Amino acid sequence: MMEVARECALAILEEDFGPLVAKVAKVLFKCSCTMQTLVRLTELSPEQVRKSLLVLRQHHLLSYTETRRIFYTINTQTALLRNRFPAMCHIVNEQYGDMEQLVLETVLLHGTISTCFDFTASPCRECLRIIASSLGEEAAAVAKVLMFSNLHQELGNDRDVPVALAHITVHRQLPSGSGLTPDLTEKWLKLLVAEGSGMFHAGRSGLYYFDLKTAMHLVASLQLERILADRYGQESLRLIRLLLENHYLDQDQIVRMAMVERYAATRVLLNELFQAGLISCQEIPKSADRAPSRCHYLWHADHASVVKTLQAQLLHAITTAHFLLWQ
């Protein structure tokens, strides 16, 4: 996983900053180095290495520790985050406008605050789409006030402290022409608490607040299911979901609980998911010789392993796309 992430990050840095910076980054991905070591391993001039380090530092990709000498370290996750810059700009354009997008593009281009952009607007927008499709546009308008009040407050406060609003405050912040009365706004808030998948809560004194962590977990789960369905099909998604919920199951239990018509086809799907590293198999011998024909097999899926496997696959795809585009 880490090797794939480094290859992907290196492809992104080479595309953004050129081959000299990528050459320095390639060495730093392997280990922390002093400037003298970088000059020797990259075979670049001290001036080229110094300028490359300045570029990486300017874009918040480089950190250092100082003892007797200064050792430089590169941040792989921050480098991977650069691949999401276009999506960030698109969200700002839709939410605020062209001028605000231009400001963000300028900031990201120069690297001044590239790691300070709060990307939580993306899961909130996805949650709004879910609410609009299930409860309607009026419920989504009410939910939007709670969500983005929470996001704006988070820019200067701890995320663990949610912003709680009274129903009358939510009503006042609704766009003009919404057609909602204070009583109707309160009814929608109560419905969001009851049907909002744990994203909305009612506190004391009639205050309502939005739980960002639950929303991000919900959106991440939905995105994970979309990727699994696109890559492996709906039947495979059903099997993985079943194993995530019930942990260890044999094939007979899987066929019965997943309501799959073809027994042989289920074994093919399980083998495919096993080869992809998405599920595992526990072998339970029925005899001392542990012969495969006399073993009971239990299938298992772990959420962290599924996420890690899909991340590696997506990073590999991004890396391949970068290399193909720049050949």
UniProtKB/TrEMBL annotation:
* UniProt-annotated location(s): Nucleus
Q: Which UniProt keywords apply?
A: DNA-directed RNA polymerase, Nucleus, Transcription
Show the GO cellular component annotation of the record: RNA polymerase III complex
| Residues in DNA-directed RNA polymerase III subunit RPC3 winged-helix domain copies | 224-300
Q: Which Pfam families match?
A: HTH_9 (PF08221), WHD_POLR3C (PF22536)
Q: Which Gene3D superfamilies match?
A: Winged helix-like DNA-binding domain superfamily/Winged helix DNA-binding domain
Annotated GO MF terms? single-stranded DNA binding
Q: Does the keyword Nucleus apply?
A: yes
As for what it does, the entry says: DNA-dependent RNA polymerase catalyzes the transcription of DNA into RNA using the four ribonucleoside triphosphates as substrates. Specific core component of RNA polymerase III which synthesizes small RNAs, such as 5S rRNA and tRNAs.
Q: How does it assemble?
A: Component of the RNA polymerase III (Pol III) complex consisting of 17 subunits.
Q: Which family does it belong to?
A: Belongs to the eukaryotic RPC3/POLR3C RNA polymerase subunit family.
Q: What is this protein called?
A: DNA-directed RNA polymerase III subunit RPC3
The species this protein belongs to is Salpingoeca rosetta (strain ATCC 50818 / BSB-021)
